[in-house]
Design brief:
Structural class: alpha/beta
Helix content: 10-25%
CATH architecture of the largest domain: 3-Layer(aba) Sandwich
Largest sheet: 7 strands, mixed
Order of helices and strands: EEEEEEEHEHEHEH
Protein name: Carbon storage regulator
Distance between the termini: 22 Å
Mean pLDDT: 74
Strand order of the largest sheet: 4-3-2-10-9-7-8
InterPro entries: CheY-like_superfamily (IPR011006), CsrA (IPR003751), CsrA_sf (IPR036107)
Keywords: Cytoplasm, RNA-binding, Translation regulation
Strand content: 25-35%
Number of helices: 4
Number of strands: 10
Number of domains: 2
Radius of gyration: 16 Å
Shape: globular
GO molecular function: mRNA 5'-UTR binding
Pfam families: CsrA
CATH topology of the largest domain: Rossmann fold
Oligomer: single chain
Amino acid sequence: MLVLSRKIGQSICLPGSDTTITIAKATRNRLSLAVDAPRETAVSRGELSSQDDEDTVVEEDIATLWRPKPKSRATQAVSTRACTSEPANILVAITNADERRRYADAFRSAGYRASEATDGLSCLSALRSDAFDMLVIDQHLIWGSGDGVIEVMHHDPLMEQVPVVLLNFPSPSEPSELGPSGKRELRCDEIVYIVQRRLAGSV
């Protein structure tokens, strides 16, 4: 089950499925989602609409059937830097230092500028003081959480247009998935690819 805020442009990448879900449209208690998935993947939706204007819960079931990919209106709002030589500016907000550095270095290796934030307060401060083309944020970010930062952005005209990729790492109380080296594999290349496509306006 995915719990999403109503921040238009927020995306979640489903681990192991090459599927990205993006909020394309939001009203008081309903969400319209855009799904970018492989041809063999179909998405069936069930919505639970909030009655008290809180977050809307959207359940997504992934099936191995082909279905045409929906069009996303959110792509119209994503800025592109195809006509300029200036690299896009990415803000990486992850509490864990190793994970944060790993993501930031992956974006720099791909040719982007990357700034780092360690918690919700420093993330909001960075968003207010600089212009970013994308925010990559951990849902369990300390001092505010990813969802809390997104909610503040939703009500701040200086930040609400910044697209967001929300990383759903395990919380400190949940077991981590460990790779062969004993460290959790984070698939930075997939996130970089998603950001590249969003900045190009293809997601």
